[in-house]
Amino acid sequence: MSTAPTSAKDAALQNKHTRLAGIPTFRYMRRFWPFYAMLAPGILYFLVFKYVPLLGSIIAFQEYNLYGGFLQSDWVGFKWFQQFFEFVHFRRLLWNTLAISFYQLIFAFPAPIILAILLNEIRSMAMRRTIQTIVYLPHFLSWIIIAGFGYMLLSPQIGLINHMVKAFGYEPIFFLQEPSWFRTIVVSSGMWKEAGWSAIVFLAAIAGINPSLYEAARIDGASRWRQLLHVTLPGMMPAIMLLLLLKIGHTLDLGVEQIYVFLSPITYEVGDIIDTYAYREGILKGEYSMTTAIGLFKSIVGFALLIAANRISRSTTGERLF
């Protein structure tokens, strides 16, 4: 008895879609202009700030003249790419970038996932909101302030950590001047700053899980651990894979601020990355063609990694970015 109305409804919907498909484009846009008006600011933003600047990538193949612009600059082909690849410390830059990115992927990426799961287990809503506010506040601090906190904690003279070290009878450790501690400091400071903010995405993913799945799991006698493994984590998997793929695509893009505030000539051997080298070449020396070539190189590698990771994710987990 209920089949006929459903079939009639589907037929009416199909006829509506058929009629809309026959409408010319300008008439369709005129009919649904409010939706296009809402899309216009976002489209304009990407056109002006994302796609139009891509035309400036041409200076990676030129001897860029700041006063003449890229229209009056001499063409030099792959000169800057070759110069970058033949740079005496290119291998060090690439290795440091990959190493720090790998540490962030292993330690920093799971941190907000674990934090979101722990926050979700707090039954008191007031306590949960209080803790969540405390842990995501560091996101709004600049890296200069974070570096100041790091100095106060790790200084051999006034640092809290070294006061504890000396209390146990050991000599103070020069954390900020020790190359062996540099990557640990960078990754852990990034975790402290961003874990709370990133956990918001995973908390939203947990909130979107159907409560009936937990009820069914409890009826089947599943413990809290089993509910986490078989309900919570599968429900979070689309968000986890999406952010993981984006993270892999930014493997070579660590940013300047986080590294630069802790970097010193003593720690160049383990902390000098592609971005800090590009900063020195572009901002301090004015080699805009060189930095554009570096940025183009990073973009190509990141795009290739994203395509590969997306295909692997699609074949193994069924989740994909596109």
UniProtKB/TrEMBL annotation:
Protein name (database record): Multiple-sugar transport system permease YteP
Membrane topology reported for the UniProt record: Multi-pass membrane protein
Ranges that cross the membrane: 35-61, 100-122, 134-154, 195-216, 228-246, 288-309
Domain ABC transmembrane type-1: 94-309
Main location: membrane
Subcellular location: Cell membrane
SUPFAM superfamilies, alphabetized: MetI-like (SSF161098)
Protein family according to the UniProt entry: Belongs to the binding-protein-dependent transport system permease family.
InterPro entries named among the record's database cross-references: MetI-like, MetI-like_sf, UgpAE/MalFG_permease
One Pfam family matching this protein: BPD_transp_1
CDD domains in the record: TM_PBP2
Organism the protein comes from: Paenibacillus allorhizoplanae
Keywords tagged on the record: Cell membrane, Membrane, Transmembrane, Transmembrane helix, Transport
